[in-house]
Amino acid sequence: MIGRQKLIRAKLKPALVLVFSLLLSAAVSAQQPASSHEEIAQRYPPLREVEIPEVTAHTLPNGIELYLLEDRSLPVISGSASIRTGNLFDPPDKIGLAGVTGSVWRLGGTESMTGEQIDEKLESMAASVEASIGETSGQVSFWTLSENFDAVLALFNSVLTRPAFRQDKIDFTLQQVRGGIARRNDDAAGIAGREFRNLVYGAGTPYGWQLQYEHLDRITKADLEAFYQRYVFPANVKLAIHGDFSAAEMKVKIEKAFAGWDAKQAPIPLFPAVPKKPAGGVFLVEKNDVNQSNVRIGHLGGLLKDEDYPALRVMSAILGGGFQSRLFKEVRGNLGLAYQAGASWGAEYGHPGVFTISIGTKSESTVQAITAALKEVERMRSEPVSDEELRTAKDSVVNSFVFNFETPRKTLDRLMIYRYWGYPQDFIFRYKERIAAISKEDVLRVAEEYLRPDDLKFVVVGKPADFDQPLDTLGREVTTLDITIPEPKQTLSEASEGTREKGRAILAKAVEAAGGAEKLAGVKDVTKRGTLAMGSTSLEQTTQIIVPDVFRQENRMPFGAMTVFLQGESGWMNSPQGQGPMPGPQVKEMQSALFRMRETLLLSAGQAGRTVNFVEQDETGGKTAGVIEISSAAAGSIRLWVDSESGDIVKSVHQGSAGDGPVEIEQVYSDYREVDGIRIPFKTQVNQDGKEVAALALTEVVYNSGLDAETLSKP
């Protein structure tokens, strides 16, 4: 014990000395005045000047533009092929095609190797080959130790020129993208940014399109192959390579490696233009499960090559570019109305960016924060900035831009971007010169000319019941946005009068096996208790239903209980983290659960709005079953496997939701028992993608106990 105490003291001593030193330093600093901009400039030397390295350029016989930059500082070589393509070329009915193509490009492997085989080979060399497609470009890149370059070049060449879009990888990628759609309304800030951008650019343009499940459902392997063939050909590729090599020798290697690639296509069209949409407005996204508001305000910005972009960049830095900006100091600091407040003049290389003011505030100060931000915009348009603001902003803008050129590799990347978009190679020098020449008068002029209050679009994501004032007090019409995610389209079986009649006959057999129509129709409420096992975790589950539209389920776990309650069109969710209203997607899921309630589902043949159809005869679990499909336009569909002998339902399949999007859920039923004259399975196995994910074992089922909706509605 004594030895351990000495050891602890020995470890604490230097820590205490460090703490004392920090406290002493803080005390001394507190007695000294804060350094001025001039003092900081004198104390620290200016950033070094940007130097443009010597890049050799060649056009290969097949049309590839090759750019080489020697750098012997490290024994590594990296490269990137830029392809003029992007999701702006997505077909309107297949939004997402470019992104899916980019994801499967590397994942699917090549004609001779699977993606996994490529992974293994690259890992053995500590190398990488990656591919992607963004909004306005596609990229295939590599990185390797110089000693392994020839082997990695061969893999890079295969991925670029001979990809294999394997169906299993397409299916995997589509499911991943569906998961993104399913989760896109979880984050309030993400909603605000997305809806704001879509409104500014316009929902009818490729810049404002919204990806939905239906678009993914239309994408096929042939679509990916056609997209690749249209845009990936030698004359549409710019290949930049940097690292430990001789430029002359590298040119020979690359020319030889790609000599057999002679694919040709028509020239790539221009990217679509951005339509001007000057009309402003206030747009509300109701999100009642938050206590904060996420706000975006702005309109179209401009291009990086615009004559006034340098002045606009400085102007936006003063308005909302950081801790020294006006929005941060006033809205966040002095007024205390926001935890986040900033602004930026968005500009892109090939199309206008978006001028954006971002505010994060508590619900009770929403309109006050917006009003304060607008006041700062008006002040930018009407009053000259101070000398100190101008100096700080100019230094900040130039210094941040210089970091794009801090290494030869970054410099080459930037030069490739300039070539890709047709910008002059000395753009950086012109930019710096123009920043240095900006005056207070320039800032005032561009603010007055380019900040257009009447064109501002406002997107507010929050709980309007808690706002300090109604949004229409901003003096603009308020439009409520519907961000509901459309459900995947139901794929129903082909139906005829004959299949419908046969489906009803099989359903009638299931009704009799379950206890008869009279018994089922007499069910007013039901309580089911049991144990739900999910892997190594098990929980106690109680489900209570009042026909036709009340649903409550409680799951008790080691860390507490989680409860959901639905009545009609709304409900709530309660967990150890607190209680809140049930989000729209969960409401639909609970409504679907009510639709699938066995006791009422079996009576579907007599219910308006539901159809029953025979699908096929099938073998499952060693039994012959008639498969019927029961569908409802409002609640979805479910397929039931009805045992041809007993009439018991042995299996069902329906579409549900998981963290990664829509999934097909299979339930296998067993251990049938009779409760109050109704035959019901006490065991249910739940499968996804052919694998068991959960198993429910009921311990008690009670019918018509007189459940009361008001009692169930209490947490």
What report would you give on this structure?
This protein has 715 residues and is an alpha+beta fold. The chain folds into 3 domains: 56-257, 2-Layer Sandwich (Cytochrome Bc1 Complex, Chain A, domain 1); 283-480, 2-Layer Sandwich (Cytochrome Bc1 Complex, Chain A, domain 1), CATH 3.30.830; 497-712, outer membrane lipoprotein receptor (LolB), chain A, CATH 2.50.20.10. The protein is built from 22 helices and 26 strands. It has a 13-stranded antiparallel beta sheet with strand order 19-18-17-16-15-14-26-25-24-23-22-21-20. A 7-stranded mixed beta sheet has the order 9-10-11-8-12-7-13, with helices on both faces. Helix 13 (366-382) packs across helix 17. The longest helix is centred in the N-terminal third of the chain and has 30 residues, at 2-31. The chain is globular. The relative contact order is 0.09.
List key phrases describing it.
alpha+beta; single chain; outer membrane lipoprotein receptor (LolB), chain A; 715 residues; disordered N terminus; Cytochrome Bc1 Complex, Chain A, domain 1; 29% strand; globular; 13-stranded antiparallel beta sheet; 3 domains
What is the typical, i.e. mean, pLDDT? 90
**Which residue ranges are poorly predicted, with pLDDT under 50 across at least 5 consecutive positions?**
1-35
Distance between the termini: 52 Å
Structural class: alpha+beta
Biggest sheet: strand arrangement? 19-18-17-16-15-14-26-25-24-23-22-21-20
| Largest beta-sheet details | 13 strands, antiparallel
CATH C-level label of the largest domain: Mainly Beta
The name of the CATH architecture of the largest domain is: Clam
Radius of gyration: 32 Å
